[in-house]
Amino acid sequence: MLPPRMKQAITDNPKKLANLIDLINLPTPLREFMGQSQTSRLGCFMRVWSYIKENNLQDPNNKNVVNCDHKLRSILLGKPQVELADLPSLIKLHFPKKTS
């Protein structure tokens, strides 16, 4: 069951949802990280988040910061640390904007 706010956002702009769930061919760095050639932006974000949790990459002193290992740096522009709030925008850079 979706939260009411999300239902409203999908109803108001179905293209936003399509941009999150449409499968696209991944660029090489993401393909190597994900281990697959196609995924959605949402699927990619969920995989990155689970990788962070599995490998305990959140800073123990500040849970809003991720300490990137070598594998994560390869897809996050080589940054040693990123804010959690910046993750979606950094991942979005790998997904080219569709021209309608």
From TrEMBL:
SUPFAM superfamilies: SWIB/MDM2 domain
PROSITE patterns per the UniProt record, alphabetical: SWIB_MDM2 (PS51925)
All copies of domain DM2, residue ranges: 19-97
Pfam families: SWIB
InterPro entries in the record: SWIB_domain (IPR019835), SWIB_MDM2_dom_sf (IPR036885), SWIB_MDM2_domain (IPR003121)
Transmembrane stretches, start-end: none
Protein name: DM2 domain-containing protein
The species this protein was found in: Cannabis sativa
